[in-house]
Amino acid sequence: MTDPWGASADMVGRLQEQLARARQASAPDDPDAASAPAGTGEVLDGRLRVTLTAGRVSAVHLDPRALRLPSEDLAAAIQEAVNAAIDAHNEQATAGLPGVPPLAELSRTLDEVTDASRRAMAQSAQAMREALAGVQRVSELHRRRPAG
Q: Does pTM surpass 0.85?
């Protein structure tokens, strides 16, 4: 009898290898060098600068000359600087990470694993039915056998 779990084990093994490679690619070379991602957005020729560290605003630099702007313009500049800082922060946070496989590829892999699992379960169920039938035959033989 063949191993009904062999196909699934091969596929799971491949997925585990891919996961290990992705983890290794995203791990820093020096664990002590790992630092929180940061990003800075700068507008108004450097008169307004916003820095994000670990997803939070960690610094705001506002040159007093920027306060001469109309409030609507200053508000728009603050929004632009914060958004630029968020973009820079996100770029640093995701730098070096492997790309996410396309949805079609993930779906195909999931379908393969599902199909292989279903086949393996069907084979296992058949093997259990055969084993139970064998036990029943042996039990029937023992009941029919004369004592003594």
A: no
